[in-house]
Amino acid sequence: MIDPEVSEHQAKILERFVTNTTDNVFVLRNLPEVIKGALFSRYSRSTLGLRALLLKEFILEEATSFKAIVGDPTDQNEQMIAIQKAQNFYDRILDGYGDDSIGELGGAHLAIESVSMLGAKVVEDGRIGGSPLEKSTRYIYFDQKVKGHYLFYREPVLMTSAYRELFEETCNELFETYSRLIPPLTSKIEGGFPKDPAISKGAYVAALRAKVLDCLRGLLPASTLTNMGVFGNGRFFESLLQRMGLHNLVEMQEIAKKARTELNKVIPSFIRRSDPDHKHYQGFAAYFEALRSDTKQLALHFKDSLPQPEMQEASVRLIDFDPTSPHKVAAAILFSSTQQSLQDLRSLSQEDVTRILEVVVSAREHRRHKSPRALEQASFTFEIVADFGVYRDLQRHRILSQERQPLTCDLGYYTPPEIVGMPEEKLYHEAMAKGKKAYDTIANELPEEAQYVVPMGYHIRWYFHVNLRSLQWLSELRSQAAGHPMYRWIAQEMARQVSEAIPSFERFFKFVDFDGYSLGRLSAEVRSEAKVKGGS
């Protein structure tokens, strides 16, 4: 049945832009983001169905430049000109609703290539509304050269300073050591874990490569170039462009400038407030600068009265939790099935709480069976010290609050146990020591820029403030055999410490893998190969 608001002839017109013209569930297609966003904005305050609204207020409305925008999808230049001409129309619609959530109705895929590892982390700091994907250090060798040069970001301030030669020499030596250690470490690990005849060569080689590169990634400086893709909605990108445009480092400012130019070609109405000339941007900039300056002054004021950082082993510390949280979780579990108040439900006995919590886990058969939102009533704060490579892995979990300290060489570094005892172990330590020497020298004058020379094996301190539901997912996922041994240990340790602090919650970590593995990626590679061969 055709939408009653749309004639048969009009339905034919709509077929290009919707997946069906008859059902009550359908998907928009072949439309630029600006039209989709404006259409949904208008939709919330219209009595028309979406298809009728698209037809009557967009397709047939001259001010939208609809035909010019969607007429020839292969002519991108003409489409952009048309969008720009119709921009005032779309801006009026979006501004008319005055709600920041309107910015979530349009999105874009942004590629950022040849960005430093440090820059990629700043991009990925945005938690809500964006989904980043970054080039992996465990599947790709980073020892390639282009025109005779290793691929690392030549930070402009450093390259025009007295530290240029020190910076380049140190980064080159770190890459050289990384490259030199690949063959001997591969031979050692291969000798210790020979291929099982039942395992295919492809799966074995992939697992072996991952193991070797996991061990050596700590040698790569934070300036190492990577590629990343980000899908995000307009609200996410607006915030990202504001933050990066106001960053102290030149690289972040340049990324913001280039990203704004490209996103303006696709979702201009959704990121217009990120333009430095926009009043909202200027207001945010004034607030941001004041907050940054005041915080820095406070930190300097308290610096001498607090203990100074010392080298330390990797660590996980549970520093804050609520002992009454099992009662809160149990009450939240029952809440939607009763007519009682949440406060009254929290007064249940310990025996009742145990019974309720057990019901939640009894039917759970796999880590992908997600627990109810009631678990979000319990939260924990962890302080973690581990190498920057591990931080890069764990930072990708966004349904939590996290913050890191600047990269330094003050807390020591991670030495992979596989390297210990090798003749080449000395090369590893020498390279890490040279990285620290260069950092210490540069940081005296340029502490922020000095981060680019820090090898990723050096420790960084950060915190996680996470609810039980998110922690359950993180711990069970990151403890799996295929993971890097250090972040597996962190995931295991967080689950263990929560279970010790609140024994009632141990049941929620039933799929945390506490075992150790020699060639962790092997089983995952075998499964992956089987899927390819099976066509699934």
In short:
Helices cover 48% and strands 11% of the residues. The protein has 536 residues and is α+β, with helices and mostly antiparallel strands. The strands form three sheets. A four-stranded antiparallel β-sheet has the order 6-7-9-8. It has a three-stranded antiparallel β-sheet with strand order 1-5-2. Strands 3-4 form a two-stranded antiparallel sheet.
Q: Work out the helix count.
A: 22
CATH class identity of the largest domain: Alpha Beta
Helix proportion: 40-55%
**Mean of all residue-level pLDDT scores:** 88
Uncertain parts: none
The CATH architecture of the largest domain comes to: 2-Layer Sandwich
Neighbour order of strands in the largest sheet: 6-7-9-8
Secondary structure category: alpha+beta
Number of strands: 9
Percent of residues in β-strands:
5-15%
Overall radius of gyration: 27 Å
Query: Termini separation (Å)?
Result: 36 Å
Number of domains: 3
Main sheet record: 4 strands, antiparallel
Look up the CATH topology of the largest domain: Gyrase A, domain 2
Overall geometric form:
globular
Keywords, separated by commas or semicolons:
single chain, 536 residues, alpha+beta, Gyrase A, domain 2, 4-stranded antiparallel β-sheet, 3-stranded antiparallel β-sheet
